[in-house]
């Protein structure tokens, strides 16, 4: 496991390892959406990634970094869904066992995915304190290694490979936008931009009802995520020291978006691009929707972080 901020060489090493199992996801565009917003938008489709989200990158790389004895004891984490599914699948592919702590309120589709991959689920209350306490219980019972969703430099290196792939294909982007919850994807994106495309400005997109990262960067210290209220169920967690430091020093800014804009963006992507994305992914387009002057005439890459949606609970039907 990495013990410091991932270097350029660390990210390249991660890319070399995960390519054996991870998909190299496509960059798609829509002329209709470009016309609506007056800029050129490329969508990095991590909704097509294994387990349906970018989280597979960091999870699989972390499993491949463990010793045989650690793999034998298994791995554990707490997650509302995407990291849970990614770690469960990664454990299965690595002949290991996953013990997943999930909030009782996690979407059914994400609970079902975790079970499908053969992991054992332990439920907790939907708050960080309950998650941490339950994980500690699991570790005491099993001896499993904790693979934190974002408070882990190895995970961050794995997530950074998403932007690395983008910069290998796109040489003239002005901005890259990534969602931010705990900050694993955004901090990885910041590092890849720094090493591989330093002229690109990195922006985080965050729900207004869960804007702790925005306030943390603004004020210079980590604000806890207390009773977040947003449709973006994958963005409910708060920054940690590792992600805060990387984002504070490398991101251009964090933009907050309303849930109404997220829903409108999600529906627009479904209708115009014919692909399924979840709210936490659509927020990158919502950031452009609410700040069109900033992006006018620019070339922007939006990371669509995942596509795990409960089709029985679509937001425009509720």
UniProtKB/TrEMBL annotation:
InterPro entries: TrpB-like_PALP, TrpB-like_PALP_sf. SUPFAM superfamilies: Tryptophan synthase beta subunit-like PLP-dependent enzymes. Belongs to the serine/threonine dehydratase family. Residues 22-306 form the Tryptophan synthase beta chain-like PALP domain. It comes from Melioribacter roseus (strain DSM 23840 / JCM 17771 / VKM B-2668 / P3M-2). One of its GO terms (biological process) is D-serine biosynthetic process. The keyword DNA repair does not apply. CDD domains: Thr-dehyd (cd01562). Keywords: Lyase, Pyridoxal phosphate. GO terms for molecular function: ATP binding; L-serine ammonia-lyase activity; magnesium ion binding; pyridoxal phosphate binding; serine racemase activity; threonine racemase activity. Pfam families: PALP. Its cofactor is pyridoxal 5'-phosphate. This is Pyridoxal-5'-phosphate-dependent protein beta subunit.
